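Figure 6 in text form: structure in, sequence out.
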């Protein structure tokens, strides 16, 4: 309509809005005035600032933002904590709702927490919530004034301090829409920062195992048929960070198989051995495996160690025969 109103000069604009201009703001809003024209100096009492004198300000709705989001991470089945920070880029304070969601790979969402918060002029708020890691979790999302409804990000509300005005739905950040086209286009972009999403993956677990025999070969003496004791040492290590992880260790061989259970902390090691009693020469394969229980290992190439136990029968020593010595066995 081209309506205009008298307000203080531009350098006082934020102060007036935040402190003592509430009645002015309410009056402008209720009268549908979306543009005010300013002059360089404060007009005298009762003097009107002529339209277009020096500058034009548009009375804009708040720009609500998600400024920071951390998801936390955990092993599958364990809990993590997500935290978000929100900001009101406006000289007008008010209340709205903030949200945290768990997003799944098929597009579903689960509300972790919602809260009504007050954000003062240029004010901030935080929200935290615990969540449980699952194999199909894709992301954690935070939003302000945008609840997730029926498969889409909806539009909430913003109630200015002292109930100066209440914005509902899409108007929360676009106002009445009675703006010049160039301003309306800018306002449409303001919704982009109301939602923030971060991808999450289950906490990585990396277990490795190495194995070795105590001797390169085990020898059965030529003068004895007594068996030899063959020992395989193995070391299991934890290469990642995180909570303690249960580990199942298996040793497989034609000589016999064994199973062990251990719990490893980040950077921890666990050592053990297996001994076999072998009475026959031969080559005996041994495979040692170490796997985390209930969670995927991110580097399966080092979860298995294979080796051979080599057992040999010692040959009797060769005794040189003296050419001048002769012996006979004569029977009766």
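Output sequence:
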């Amino acid at each position: 309509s081209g309506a205009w109103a008298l307000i203080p000069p531009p350098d006082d604009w934020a102060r007036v809005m935040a402190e003592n201009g509430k009645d002015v703001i309410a009056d402008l809003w209720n009268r549908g005035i979306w543009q005010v024209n300013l002059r360089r100096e404060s007009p005298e009492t009762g003097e009107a600032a002529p339209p277009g004198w020096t500058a034009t300000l548009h009375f804009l709705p708040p720009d609500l933002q998600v400024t920071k989001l951390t998801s936390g991470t955990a092993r599958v089945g364990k809990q993590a904590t997500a935290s978000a920070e929100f900001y009101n880029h406006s000289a007008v304070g008010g209340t709205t709702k903030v949200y945290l969601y768990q997003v799944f790979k098929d597009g579903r969402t689960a509300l972790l927490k919602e809260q009504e918060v007050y954000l003062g002029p240029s004010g901030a708020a935080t929200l935290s919530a615990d969540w449980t890691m699952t194999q199909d979790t894709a992301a954690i999302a935070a939003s302000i004034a945008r609840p997730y409804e029926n498969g889409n990000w909806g539009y909430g509300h913003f109630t200015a301090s002292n109930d100066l005005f209440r914005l509902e739905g899409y108007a929360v950040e676009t106002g009445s829409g009675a703006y010049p086209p160039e301003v309306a286009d800018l306002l449409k972009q303001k919704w982009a920062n109301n939602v923030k999403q971060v991808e999450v993956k289950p906490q990585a677990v990396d277990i490795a195992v190495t194995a070795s025999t105590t001797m390169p070969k085990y020898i059965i003496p030529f003068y004895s048929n007594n068996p030899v004791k063959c020992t395989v040492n193995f070391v299991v290590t934890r290469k990642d960070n995180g909570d303690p992880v249960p580990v199942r260790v298996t040793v497989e061989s034609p000589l016999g198989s064994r199973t062990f259970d251990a719990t490893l902390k980040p950077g921890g090691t666990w050592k053990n051995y297996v001994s076999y009693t072998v009475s026959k020469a031969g080559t005996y394969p041994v495979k040692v495996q170490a796997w985390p229980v209930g969670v995927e290992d991110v580097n399966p190439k080092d979860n298995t160690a294979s080796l051979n136990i080599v057992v040999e029968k010692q040959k009797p020593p060769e005794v040189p025969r003296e050419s001048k010595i002769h012996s006979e066995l004569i029977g009766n």
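Caption detail: The first helix runs from residue 13 to 20.
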